[in-house]
Amino acid sequence: MKKNAYLLLFILAALLAAGRAAAQAPASTSPGTGSLTGTVLDSLGRQPVAYATVVLLPPAPNDKPLTGVAADDQGHFVLTRLAAGTFRLRASYVGYGTRTRTIAVGPGATAVGNLLLPTAAQSVGEVVVTGQKPVVEVRPDRLVYNADQDVGNAGGTAQDVLRKARCWP
Length: 169
Prior knowledge:
By secondary structure, this protein is α+β, with helices and mostly antiparallel strands. The protein has helices at residues 2-22, 158-164, and strands at 34-42, 53-57, 67-70, 76-82, 85-92, 99-105, 109-117, 136-138, 143-145.
């Protein structure tokens, strides 16, 4: 019995020590002092692509973004507080392709220059919009019966239509 109590006490102590070790704070990763600046442009007209998404990715094959920003209305972007190293910079926007560039970030400001987004040509098929009136419309001052929308009126006479509309006895 005494042996089981010691074993239980040992297991409890081991679990508490393991839990305490797992609760340790991770080593602090202070943000770097590097920054990236650049402009996102349309590759055809060299016009700014307003509000394009620019993300900083670690080297391949990992595609989990480290940080990101939306370009302003002139296509300019600034990424700040970056650690030094080699990264991938990816710019994208709806209706355009994606441009990825490998860049080296140093301790100061790094000018990326222009990121040219290729246009993604997409052909959209024809769209046909059709609508139908309801058979009976309720308006504030009257009730409207749309006889042409009632399939039961096909092949009938005007008298049949009036009978359906409860206007004719």
